[in-house]
């Protein structure tokens, strides 16, 4: 009996001992930066000397900085194009994939391979494909007689960036929705058919409601991506033309490492995180439904 | 009659989806062909009139003269990605074993803490982490690309979830035979959970190989840059050399695509697993 208690004690000590490796690691690479984040939030510092406490000055500065809010609006403009298009596209892709019998793997993999493209390389690739006299414009010109200033006009640039991000992520989101689709029991559709439901009714009464968790998941992923977007605008437009594609991440990096103002940059990062949390919270609150699949 | 209608509709759906698949593959095909055709044909023709490796040669040879050591950057990227991936798999396996198979008081607390950590977006920590690297005097060194990432909360989370499903009988039996903990973790638990290992490894490797913002901030020296940053700086200054830029993009893309094709099953599983 006492031997057993001794063993349990030994096991507990060992278990905690091993797990504490992670705790130490987290204390250094997560806890320490977290503390620094708070210091930066309330001080003035330019990488040298010791930070000086300035109270809420950074925060009021962010609130009244038109450039910061411009970058936030840019993210919302990006989401305005990106989220509806990618969500509808991914949904159609998932439904089509569910109906396809031949070459399913080929279709799924061709869409997914876009997702493993390297951020830098695919930005270079698309900036050439969509350049003013690139192949896409050549094709458009010979077919319809038009050329589109994809990345060079302030009206088009953000839309074009949304397009290439859609290219990259439609397969990924589509597969998440597809996994949700295959989990819906066939018997539900059969029962609905017996009751004389058409395909539209089936889609809006069965598919969409039961897909809710997957759709929310895709929305959360898409919002998180939108607020962290950096590589594409950095590589392709550099934030231009007329700052129409300047994102909070680009603004943060230039503020911290070119204007040498890390305290202000860190404050912006916190604001961006809060805004993205807020949006996810609103989405969850308004759209999430409990789904019970038996 | 309706049956026929459904069938013809299905045929059309197949054709449309195959056509769309080709459109989705087109940028890759264009990129690859652009890297092996003469510069004059990059914008004018899809299929090259002759096959050439001059752009790759340019990148490998004269890039050295332009202070852009591509081969070196390729191996730096490979080294960093492999090191981080191996470290993440080893540390995740050991810690997940403790979190799933040992009973101790703080266990659930630690697991919940890991989930709590995953809620915070990485960009919040970019600048404080940079300050930490500076204080540790690791800026402008490969350690700055490796050390902060050798453990992953997400990796531990995934593996713990999977390890919990492995029956304790296997472990008890191995212990009877006098197996050490390390033996149990690496010879029993990991092989039994090889799909989650593949998922954690694959996503970690791709994440590190593709990472751009962090190395851009912490590495200034051309001779220490990973491929993503070096390619970006080459494109920035010598963007007019379209052929070589395309060749560089191919080199940067190829390992990810190859790994994706090899581990496509794990990748598909990973996406459906991330739902849970």
TrEMBL record, chain B:
Belongs to the binding-protein-dependent transport system permease family. PROSITE patterns: ABC_TM1. Keywords: Cell membrane, Membrane, Transmembrane, Transmembrane helix, Transport. The lineage of its organism: Bacteria, Thermotogati, Thermotogota, Thermotogae, Petrotogales. It comes from Petrotoga halophila DSM 16923. One of its GO terms (biological process) is transmembrane transport. It holds the Pfam family BPD_transp_1. It is a multi-pass membrane protein. One of its GO terms (cellular component) is plasma membrane. Residues 74-263 form the ABC transmembrane type-1 domain. InterPro entries: MetI-like, MetI-like_sf. PANTHER family: ABC TRANSPORTER PERMEASE PROTEIN MG189-RELATED, ABC TRANSPORTER PERMEASE PROTEIN MG189-RELATED-RELATED. This is Sugar ABC transporter permease. It is found in: Cell membrane. Coiled coil: none annotated. It comes from the Bacteria. The chain crosses the membrane at residues 12-33, 70-98, 110-132, 138-157, 238-263.
């Amino acid at each position: 009996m006492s031997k057993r208690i001794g063993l349990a004690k030994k096991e507990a000590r060992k278990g905690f001992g091993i797990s504490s490796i992670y705790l130490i690691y987290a204390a250094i690479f997560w806890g320490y930066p977290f503390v620094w984040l708070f210091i930066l939030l309330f001080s003035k510092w330019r990488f040298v000397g010791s930070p000086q406490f300035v109270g809420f000055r950074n925060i009021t500065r962010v609130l009244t900085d038109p450039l910061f809010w411009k970058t936030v609006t840019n993210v919302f403009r990006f989401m305005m194009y990106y989220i509806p298009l990618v969500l509808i596209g991914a949904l159609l892709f998932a439904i089509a994939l569910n109906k396809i019998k031949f070459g399913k793997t080929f279709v799924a993999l061709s869409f997914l391979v876009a997702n493993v493209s390297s951020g830098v390389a695919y930005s270079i690739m698309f900036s050439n494909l969509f350049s003013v006299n690139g192949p896409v414009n050549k094709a458009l010109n010979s077919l319809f007689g038009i050329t589109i200033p994809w990345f060079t006009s302030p009206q088009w640039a953000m839309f074009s960036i949304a397009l290439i991000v859609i290219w990259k992520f439609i397969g990924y989101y589509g597969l998440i929705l597809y996994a949700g689709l295959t989990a819906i029991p066939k018997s539900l559709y059969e029962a609905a058919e017996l009751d004389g439901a058409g395909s539209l009714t089936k889609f809006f009464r069965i598919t969409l409601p039961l897909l809710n968790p997957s759709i929310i998941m895709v929305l959360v992923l898409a919002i998180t991506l939108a607020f962290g977007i950096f590589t594409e605008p950095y590589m392709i437009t550099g934030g231009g033309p007329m700052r129409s594609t300047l994102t909070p991440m680009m603004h943060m990096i230039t503020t911290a490492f070119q204007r040498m103002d890390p305290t202000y940059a860190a404050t912006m990062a916190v604001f961006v995180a809060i805004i993205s949390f807020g949006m996810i919270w609103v989405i969850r609150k308004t759209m999430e439904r409990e789904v019970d699949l038996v | 009659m309706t049956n026929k209608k459904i069938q013809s509709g299905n045929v059309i759906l197949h054709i449309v989806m195959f056509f769309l698949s080709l459109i989705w593959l087109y940028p890759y095909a264009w990129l690859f062909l652009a890297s092996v055709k003469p510069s004059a044909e990059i914008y004018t023709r899809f299929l090259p009139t002759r096959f050439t490796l001059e752009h790759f040669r340019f990148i490998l040879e004269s890039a050295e003269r332009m202070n852009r050591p591509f081969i070196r950057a390729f191996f730096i990227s490979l080294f960093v990605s492999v090191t981080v991936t191996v470290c993440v798999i080893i540390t995740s396996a050991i810690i997940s074993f403790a979190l799933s198979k040992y009973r101790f008081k703080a266990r659930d607390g630690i697991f919940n803490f890991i989930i709590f950590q995953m809620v915070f977006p990485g960009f919040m920590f970019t600048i404080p982490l940079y300050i930490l690297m500076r204080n540790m005097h690791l800026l402008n060194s490969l350690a700055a690309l490796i050390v902060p990432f050798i453990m992953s909360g997400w990796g531990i989370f995934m593996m713990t979830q999977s390890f919990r499903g492995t029956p304790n009988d296997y472990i008890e039996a191995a212990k009877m035979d006098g197996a050490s903990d390390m033996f149990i973790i690496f010879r029993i638990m990991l092989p039994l959970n090889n799909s989650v290992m593949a998922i954690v490894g694959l996503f970690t490797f791709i994440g590190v190989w593709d990472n751009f913002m962090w190395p851009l901030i912490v590495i200034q020296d051309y001779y220490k840059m990973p491929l993503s940053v070096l390619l970006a700086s080459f494109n920035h200054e010598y963007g007019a050399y379209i052929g070589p830029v395309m060749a560089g993009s191919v080199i940067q893309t190829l390992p990810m695509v190859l790994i994706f094709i090899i581990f496509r099953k794990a990748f598909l599983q990973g996406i459906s697993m991330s739902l849970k």
